[in-house]
Amino acid sequence: MPRRHLRMTGAADCSLGAALRDLRTELDLPAAFPAEAMAEAEAAVRDPGLSAHEDATGLPLLTIDPPASTDLDQAMYLERRPGGRGYRVHYAIADVVAFVRPGGALDAEAHRRVTTLYFPDDRIPLHPTVLSEGAASLLPGEVRPAALWRIDLDGDGRATATDVRRALVRSRAKLDYAGVQRRIDARTAEEPLTLLREIGRLREEQEPARGGISLDVPEQEITGHDGAYGLAYRASLPAEAWNAQISLLTGIAAAHRMAQTGTGILRTLPIAPDGAVARLRRSARALRVDWPHHVPYAQIVRSLDPRRSNHAAFLQECTTLLRGAGYTAFDHGELPDHAVHAAVADLYTHCTAPLRRLVDRYAAELCLAATAGKEPPEWVREALPALPKEMAEGTRRANTVERACVDLVEAALLEGRVGELFDAYVVDVGERNPATGTVHLRDPAVVGRIEGGTAPLPLGERLRVRLTQAGPAAKTVLFAPA
After folding, report:
1. Which helix (H) or strand (E) holds 413?
2. What DSSP string describes 227-255?
3. What whole-number distance in Å separates Cα of residue 106 and Cα of residue 39?
4. Which of 83, 178, 333, 395 is most exposed, with minimal Cβ within 10 Å?
5. What are the angstrom distances between the C-alpha of 135 and each of 22, 112, 228, 329, 429?
6. 319 phi, psi to nearest 5 deg
7. Are 470 and 411 in contact (CB under 8 A)?
8. With helix as H, strand as E and coil as C, how does 145-172 read?
């Protein structure tokens, strides 16, 4: 079954809470931070390492995040270059190294956690919240240490020059995606926000030109209101895609900076084998998605409308080509054989979310050292060989949490409705057993496994299904053809 996207939006306290607490125990997830790690964090808040940071508090940066977010990794300011020769992107990324001492108890705990884990009702942070939602977060009006990128673009959105250095910054405003989209659509946005659309669209145009793809897969969103909870499908806003392009731009710039020096860690994805692409073409035919042989995969993906059921099903199928992503470290001047991220169609690294992802702290240090013409810190070099495995294990755990949360909410939402009929459409069919697969309900917003029939499932077609399993005890839902 393709991996489902999940976006949390503050589910309310309800009977689901106990089941989610049990889930955290069952998965043996980190609990409170050790006392020694907390003591280090609190000491770092009182006396962070800021001696190497230049003053860039005059930049009118802003953040764009979900409304409830307080662990703010990135802030940006976009402007036109002097003389109208393209654009300049200022992108500040929280400087975690100013607070986390390499080799200390807090560092060791971050290596144990690897990523922040998100639940509908809570989160398990990578760093203590006194840092991740306080002293290290790029909160508005607060002076914060950052790795400040400056990326110059030409008039077509291609990067022409990059620079990164440590700086003290101060965000002017905390914006959310919906508000940004409204202001841009209403033509009331100031130039930095209108440039987000302008640069974002240019970067989107660069993506297929280099062979890259972005999948706009419909998300399931857990919602909560007045003690109740539910699920809804959510289409992403254009402003989210434009914002993601700025992050992607920075990840590409960072990867090339590391490649130039011969030491780094990349986010990699192998090119899909011919058999996988051939299977996807068969799925396109089954779903009545027109895919001429001369049209590249990336181009057909960009033409899809996720609001159409057959296109949404095909987008789910497309995620199979993105499996196998990992991390690859290199040192002493040798790039790995398979260094490119196939979906990005370029060198790429994770560097823009250090409050929530371990590897980003190391990528930042490698880029800062490269820009300054220095050797990477020894603590960074020593950690590189183990980082890919650490990140793989942490990513697997985060994916397990995400899947388990969605399954649990779906099961709780449909409790007491076993035997009822629902309208759905088939988004995935088993290769070995085409009578099994995955269905996407129209209402409520549930995606579940279907089995029990004898005839092959009609991929992309509407289907009447019967709920055969649900409830918190089951922890998942199951359907059968009606």
Report:
1. helix 387-413
2. TEEEEEEEPPPHHHHHHHHHHHHHHHHHH
3. 9
4. 83
5. 31, 22, 33, 30, 48
6. -65, -20
7. yes
8. EEEEEEEEECCCCCEEEEEEEEEEEEEE
Contact between 180 and 239 under an 8 Å Cβ cutoff? The reply is yes
Side chain identity at 420, as an amino acid letter? E
**Residue ranges of the alpha helices (H) in 99-225?**
105-113, 129-130, 177-185, 191-210
Could you report the per-residue pLDDT of 446-456, keeping only the tens digit for each?
889 999 888 99
For residues 325 and 398, what is the distance between their CA atoms, to the nearest angstrom?
A: 14
Structure tokens at 131: 């840092």
pLDDT of 209: 81
Ranked by mean pLDDT, the top range of 196-200, 314-318, 414-418 is 196-200
Give bridge partners of residue 92 from the DSSP assignment: 75, 148
Residues near 146 by beta carbon (within 8 Å), at least 6 away in sequence:
56, 75, 92, 93, 94, 95, 138, 166, 167, 168, 169
Q: Which tokens go with 63?
A: 């953040």
Task: Determine the pLDDT at residue 228.
Answer: 63
Give the type of residue at 182: R
Peptide bond between residue 444 and the one before it cis (omega within 30 degrees of 0)? yes
